[in-house]
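Putative major facilitator superfamily (MFS) transporter: structure tokens wanted.
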Amino acid sequence: MSALAFSLLGYSNHPALYSIGITGVSIGCTLLESSCKALIGDRVSDKASRELSLYCRYYAINAGGAVGPLFGVTLGVGEQGLTFLITAAIYFIYGLLLWRLLHYTAWRDTTPKQTKTSSPSFFAAWGQIIRHRLFAMLMFCNMLAAFVYASFDSTLVQYLTRSDVPNVMLLIATLIAINALTIIIAQFPLLHLLQRYSTGVRLMTGLLLMLLAQLLFAFSPVTQFYILAAATIILSLGELVVFPTFSVEVDQITPNALRGSYFGAANLSLLGGALAPLYGGLMLDFSNHRVLFLSLAGLCLLTMILQNVTNMMKREQVK
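Answer:
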């Protein structure tokens, strides 16, 4: 689906076609995200290895996210359609490789001792997900965290653009590069430092870092590049802890037969990232940047409180 959607974007010359293409890209990415997480959970039996695989997956996505936009901007200046077609070709090749790998592993894992487990129906699966209070709380916390983090990609850009900063595009590009480099360089060293702690403690640590970043954004002048850069680094450190750890948490509380359904439902947390630009624009229109980022810091604090409740619920469930 993603390959077809990017191909459509490559040949589009009408807003309606662009809308269809973007919708297809979004649906394809969502299906791919949940399916890959579920496959990792199904194929990697060891808990520690499965956790590391989820972190590696997040690292690979961020590495591609750092290189992809740079490649797209460089090539897309003169050949916008070609950029989309190259992306479609990459998705198509990836799909073929993934199909071949799954076909091979399915053949290799087939043994006479295997017993086929019956999967629940669609409505039964969603009924169980809705009744799972721990998962609902975890997903809500993830949604709030996504809402806060999305302010970096959208609201901060709006704020800097409206502030009449000299060379604003260079400033924005530099902050985005700092964000990507921090994630690529720091993910595994930070993971090594936090591996002795539970996933609940890691989430609280990451959320605290995101809160501190919002406070720095709130009180730093737009002319102070080094403060903005420090806030970006702190936010990036929080991001690389929070979001892959949420995936690990979902994997830990998910029944084996419903792993795909749970990861699919967890994608509802993306709604937070979708609403963030609207909220940020309204706050900048009717208030100022300080109120905006302080409200996001307050939202981080609320998320930490809810996450603490989630941690207590998980401990009680284990008992």
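The first helix runs from residue 2 to 11. Residues 181 and 247 are 22 Å apart (CA to CA).

Cheers.
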